[in-house]
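Review form for a predicted model. The reviewer records the input and the model, then writes brief findings.
Reviewer: anonymous (R2)
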Amino acid sequence: MRNILNINEGWTFTKEAVENFAKLPEGEAISLPHSWNAVDGQDGGNDYFRGTAYYGKELSKSALPKCDEYYLEIRGANSSATVYVNGKKLACHDGGYSTWRVDITDALTDENVIVISVDNSANETVYPQMADFTFYGGLYRDVNIVCVDKNHFDLEYFGGEGVTVTHNIVGEDAEVCVNVWHTAEGASVKYTILDAEGKEVVSEENTYNSATLKIEGVHLWHGRRDPYLYTLKAELIKDGEVCDTVTARFGCRTFKIDPDRGFILNGEEYPLRGVSRHQDRWGIGNALLPEHHREDMDLICEVGATTIRLAHYQHDQFFYDLCDERGMVVWAEIPYISRHMPTGRENTVSQMKELITQNYNHPSIVVWGLSNEISIAGSDEDLLENHRILNDLCHEMDKTRLTTIAAVSMCKMDDPYLQIPDVVSYNHYFGWYGGDTSMNGPWFDKFHGMHPEIPIGCSEYGCEALNWHTSDPKQGDYTEEYQAFYHEELIKQLFSRKYIWATHVWNMFDFGADARAEGGENGQNHKGLVTFDRKYKKDSFYAYKAWLVSPETDPFVHLCGKRYIDRVEDVTKVTVYSNLPEVELFVNGESIGKKQAADHFFYFDVKNTGESTIVAKAGELTDEGKIRKVEEMNMDYVLVEKGAVLNWFDIDAPEGRFSLNDKLSDIMSCTRGKLWFAKVGLSIKKKMNKAKSGKDDEKKSGGFDVDLSSGGGLMEMMGGFTVLRLTSMMGMMNVNFTKEELLKLNKKLNKIKKPKN
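Model under review:
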């Protein structure tokens, strides 16, 4: 019978080169899961270690259960890995986010040394190589020994379990088709379906390696409302003995994605409003434990999400199981992201095969994501062919689900790339990376009008917020107040358009992006509704909770701005979020009125004198904070970029003249501003070309050309940046400006008068 032995304990780790793989490498004693970039992958500088490191473990065969065959099971090794047992090279694997197994039976002796080399260095064949997140190296998930009889369910086909469960709803019943793969000739398989309480529903035994079982009066899996799960148990029987057993949980449901009505689950409209999730944490990297996954799911459920986009790679099976149990509708994808590599096609195919094979039975998954922002530099024929191959592969392997892509704003609405998958989503940041918040809804209306037959969704939208504060929030200021405003506007625009088949906030949690130098805390993307350490829910978290959570389930009231106490204004705008219909505000114990708000956002004007205690009350619930009148702005609330060449308050900005603190779109609204930018564009182009030709692969700009003179979507996005912010962000592409260069640019801008209108 099958026995799975976890071997996470007792490993050594080293970055030093290993020459003798038959000997345990000297190094640090560690336990798995482990990542060597847990610190340097989150501290900024784009200088985290990308290379080869080694994990070693001694293993006595006598410590293993007696059986015929032994498989080493690796649930995540980023990005490429090679397994050695007693010095013998047994297998290599490319792809850092999936499960894979190696038959180590013949290599085992009484005493054994297992060495696994793991490599996350830059290359041109394994995805991802360019993206806005850290590619943590390590053995960051469980490692097991799977002990089996010689007659067992297949363990070697793309990391799967050797069983697939496919259902078809017929009236009140479900026809459940089970297929199995195993190594036993002349064996039979007994198929048993158990209900959620573990009681047998139906059973059948045959020798066909497949069976169709009927569940009468089937209990449907209905998302968060009722995530009901059955279990399929398959027993491999040879000569009257059970040789191996596998189980697979599954749910029975129907779904469709309609271009006008959105997502439909079991015949009912079921709006998909949710978040995206990266799998890493502060100080841990991607080496998460079960309690971390559970906490993430608890927070996602609390915010009221009905869907999760698991970006941008295959996540831990433990988390997919949680999605099934909690009723989350899931978008699952491979890390085919940002930069198309003609030499990486084979890897996209193998990663997609693993993703589908290992996750086929999860009822939570409804779409397979082919790629993310891969057309950022345009769609050439090789890229299109790669997508056609992946799209066909998904439909060949899984006839029950749809395919999708996450296109970026610059991708034109008539790009042939958009015609390949079944449904489409876009990543838009109007109101953060250019444009303004009001552009989001109209853009989707335009797409829907142009392509009424294509279901359209919003796969990413968001803006960054840290512990900075202002009473006059502006785009790009990284304040909690602007993030709250941004999400208020996006909620109203996106949630009111029923045809948008899914919306996914970018992101549920702040995450590691070592190349980033934004917001005063380098090495992270701070677009999360929750901080990287999961300790603080930003105000915008509660904006979603107010819209998505029923007051019967979890009534609440939230007073925004509790971290922003010292204020200079005479009248403070106080914002309250609640899923209850009415909020009353008290200042120093006195009511200043009650308000109702259909959009769940309640606004009050409060006179700011002395120190005031503010209490928001909704029903029997209250939330409390303070404000205090000060004469000068508390600079602890103001972003000062760490290590910045130049900060906004260091810039000379004469009244009526342009400066680096002005938006590019405003500067280009006049002829002299356009001429100024044309010259700057040439300078940027030279810097980008220089960065791309650098010898160090890790310091290259990433492989896509940006035509700054082309206008269109890219210029529309860039127009919302101040020049200073734009030059700062270009540092992520290793396009850097010195202080002297920036001051010179500013001096020329100071000579240009702002238009009077």
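Findings: Residues 695-712 have pLDDT under 50 and may be disordered.
Further findings: The longest helix spans residues 671-692.
Recommendation: see findings above.
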